[in-house]
Amino acid sequence: MNIYDVSAKAGVSIATVSRVLNGNPNVSDKTRNRVLEVMDELGYTPNVFARGLGLNTMKTVGIMCSDSSDPYLAHAIYYLERELRANGYDSILCCTGSELVNKRQYFELLLSKRVDAMILAGSKFVEIDSAEDNNYIIEAAADLPVMLVNGYLDAPGIYSTVCDDHDAMYQVAHRLLQSGRRQILYLYTSHSYSGMNKLQGYKDALTAHGMPVRQELIHRCAKDLGEAKELLLSLADSGLTFDAVMTSDDSLAVGALKFAHCRKKSIPEELSIVGYNNSMLSYCTDPEISSVDTKIESLSIITVQSLMKVFGGGQVPGKSVIKADFVQKQTTDL
Amino acid sequence: MNIYDVSAKAGVSIATVSRVLNGNPNVSDKTRNRVLEVMDELGYTPNVFARGLGLNTMKTVGIMCSDSSDPYLAHAIYYLERELRANGYDSILCCTGSELVNKRQYFELLLSKRVDAMILAGSKFVEIDSAEDNNYIIEAAADLPVMLVNGYLDAPGIYSTVCDDHDAMYQVAHRLLQSGRRQILYLYTSHSYSGMNKLQGYKDALTAHGMPVRQELIHRCAKDLGEAKELLLSLADSGLTFDAVMTSDDSLAVGALKFAHCRKKSIPEELSIVGYNNSMLSYCTDPEISSVDTKIESLSIITVQSLMKVFGGGQVPGKSVIKADFVQKQTTDL
DNA sequence: AATTGTATTGTAAGTGCTTACAGGGTTATG
DNA sequence: CATAACCCTGTAAGCACTTACAATACAATT
Questions:
Q1: Which of A226, B20, B284, B301 could form a disulfide with A284 if both were Cys (CB 3.0 to 4.6 A apart)?
Q2: With the C-alpha atoms ordered A75, A77, A83, A85, is the resulting torsion angle positive or negative?
Q3: Domain ranges of chain B
Q4: What angle do CA B56, B61, B63 make, to 5 degrees?
C-alpha cells in the first residue's frame, strides 16, 4: 500500500498524490477530493521513512530531561509533548537520570536520530560551574534549534524560556522579612543557572532590608526529603537557630516540615516553610506547604510556541521570562 | 555526508560499507577496520530514514501512558525508556492525559509512525466495562507486539506484565482483619483489569474471614486527594464508621490521612490507612503511609525483556506476574 | 485564429540505505 | 592443471516518497 496504489486508483500521477499529501495548493479541488477519497477507501498511510528521506525531517523533536520522576519535570514533559503533538510534531524522550553522567552522550544519540530540534527540560543541563561543559550544546545549536526550559545559555540558536526565579525568591524573602522573620535558612540543590538566580534573589532581599548574608544559613542538599530533614536536625543540634526555611525545591520543603514535626515546632508561628515549584508534594502534607508556582504549563507552551516560530523562520528572543506566583498555603502567614 | 562518501574514501563499494554498518560477518577484518576508521575520520552517522526505508523498521517503540504526572507512571516511563535504550531501541512517548478521550486516536497516530511495538503503561487502557472498546488494540496486535504494563488482554500478540494485585490486596486486608480491624473502607479509582483484581482481593479476604462484603464500605473516587478527603468526610458525617481505609492508589491514601487529621483521629490506633504503589507521596506525609510496593522497576524491565524476546522470535507467556510487597510505615501496626 | 499566460498535472531525478545476485580471487581437491 | 568450493566484494534494483522542471490544457487577450 503506497503512493502508487493511490495514484493508480485515482487515475493521477504520484506527484499529484504527493502534493495532496503535503497540502500543496497547486491541485484542483476536484482532483484533491478524488485523491482524498481514494486514500480513505484504501486506508492509506504515508510511510514516514520515505517521507523523512525526501524532506530530511521527520517532524520529531528530542526532549531530554534529567529525571522524569521529579513531579515538576514530569509535568513539563506532559505539556511539552501535548503541545508538540498539537503542532504536528512527535517527541522522542530521553531521561538521563538524575546523575546526568552521560548527558552529552544521550544528547548526541538524539541528534543522530535526525530530530528537528532539541528541548532540554530541567535546569541541570546547564551547569554554571563548568562553562566549557556546555560547548557541545552550543555547537549543536548551529545545526538545529535548541530550547532550554528553565536554563540559559547565550548562543545563537539557543532559546531559553525561564521563570523569573530571582524575582520569585526576592519576593518570598522580602515578605518573610517584612513579617518579622530574621533568620531565614536557605536550602538549595544545584548550581544551575536557575539555582543561582534563586539564591541571588534571597541574598538581594536580605541586603535590601539591610541584613547581612550569613553563609551559615545557606546550605546545599541533595534533592531528597530524608537528607533535608537530617541536615536540619544536625544544624539545629549544632546550635543554629532559624525561624524560616526557604527551599529551591518542594522536596526539600517536605523534609523541612518533617524536621519541624520531629522537633515539635509550631507552624507557621515558630517556623515558616516555603517550597518551590508548587508541585503535588506541597499539597500532600499537613499542613500544606506554601510554595512558588513556577508556571510549568506556561513555560512548556511558550517553549513549543517559540520553537514553532523558529521553524517558521520568525524572530524569537533568546530568552523569554515569565513571572512566578507565590501560593500561600499553611506553612506561612504572609 | 553519506555512505558514498565513506565508500569513496575507503576505496570500497557502498555495499561493503553497509555490511560493516550492519555487522554482516562477510567482510574481511582488514576491510572492516579501514571502513570503521574512515567513518570515524568523517564523523559519519547513518541516516535513520534511509535505513528505515530499507529495513522498514526504525528500532523505535511507542509508549502510551495515561498520565505522566502520576508519579507511578512517571517511574514506569523512566525505566521503560532506559531499558529500551539499553537494548538499542528508541521510544516515542505519547501521554493521553488522564481523560483518555482519544486513546484510540493516539494509538493509531503512534502506529502510523511505524513503531516496531507498542507499550501501554497504566491499567486504564484496558477497561473491563467495555470489552469492545479494546478491539483496536487486539487488531493492532496482529501486526506488531503490544505490551501491557499492569493490564491484561487475552489475544495473540498481546503480552502483559502485571503485578499480583489480587494477592497484594488480599494480604493487606487479611492482615488488617487479623489485627482486629472490622470495618475496612475500600476506595478505588477505576474499573480496570488491575482495579478489579485489587477489589476482588479485598472481598476474598473478607469472605475468607467469614465477614460479609458490605457495599456501603466500597466507594469509587477520582484519583485526587482532595476528593478522597471530602468523600470520607461526607461518609463519616452520614454515620458510617470504619477503622481502616484501603486504597487503590497512594493519592487516595493521602486524602484519607487528611481526613483523619481533620477529624483528629489517632493513627494507626483509631484508623489504619494503606496506600498502593508505594510512591513518593506515601513518604511525604507525616505519618508516612504504609503502602504496597508494586515493583514498577521490575515490571518495566520484564516488559522490555519480554519484548526483546518477542522480537527475537522467542516464546513469551501471554502474562507475566510478579508479587508485590507490603511496605509497613506509620499508618498501620500489622 | 494566433498568442500569451496561468493553472494544473506528469516525468524523472534525487534521497541514503539494504540486499539479492553475480563475479572475481583464492585455496583445496581430484 | 583443471575444477569445485568458498570467501569476499561490487553491481544494481529496490524501498516510498519529494520536487524541480517540463508539458499540457484551457482561458483570456489581441
A1: B284
A2: negative
A3: 1-56, 165-294
A4: 150
Answer whether A71 sits within 8 Å of B67, measured CB to CB: no
CATH topology of domain B1-56: 434 Repressor (Amino-terminal Domain) (1.10.260)
Question: Mean pLDDT across the stretch B314-327?
Answer: 96
Shortest CA gap B126–chain A (Å): 21
Among the listed ranges A116-125, A221-230, B143-152, which one has the minimum average pLDDT value? A116-125
Are domains A1-56 and A165-294 of this chain identical in fold? no
Over residues A304-323, mean pLDDT? 94
Residues 6+ apart with CB under 8 A from B303: B80, B83, B119, B147, B149, B159, B161
E strands, chain B, where? 60-65, 90-95, 117-121, 146-149, 158-163, 184-188, 218-220, 244-247, 272-274, 291-293, 319-322, 325-327
Q: How far is A3 from chain B (nearest CA, A)?
A: 14
Rounded CA separation A259/A233 (Å): 6
**Other residues' Cβ atoms within 10 Å of the Cβ of residue B44:** 18
pLDDT given at position B121: 92
**Per residue in B90-125, pLDDT tens?**
888 888 776 666 788 888 888 888 899 999 998 777
A47/B68 touch (CB, cutoff 8 Å), yes or no: no
Is residue B21's beta carbon less than 7 angstroms from any atom in nucleic acid strand C?
A: yes
Q: Does the pLDDT at position A208 exceed 90?
A: yes
CB-based contact A90 B90, cutoff 8 Å: no
- Residue A32's DSSP bridge partners are none
pLDDT of residue A68: 76
Other beta carbons less than 10 A from residue A258's beta carbon: 23
Confidence of residue A134 (pLDDT cuts 50, 70, 90): confident
Distance set, CA A67 to CA A75, A120, A299, A334, B35 (Å): 11, 11, 18, 33, 38
CATH topology classification for A165-294: Rossmann fold (3.40.50)
Residue-wise pLDDT for A244-267, tens only, equals 999 999 999 999 999 999 999 999
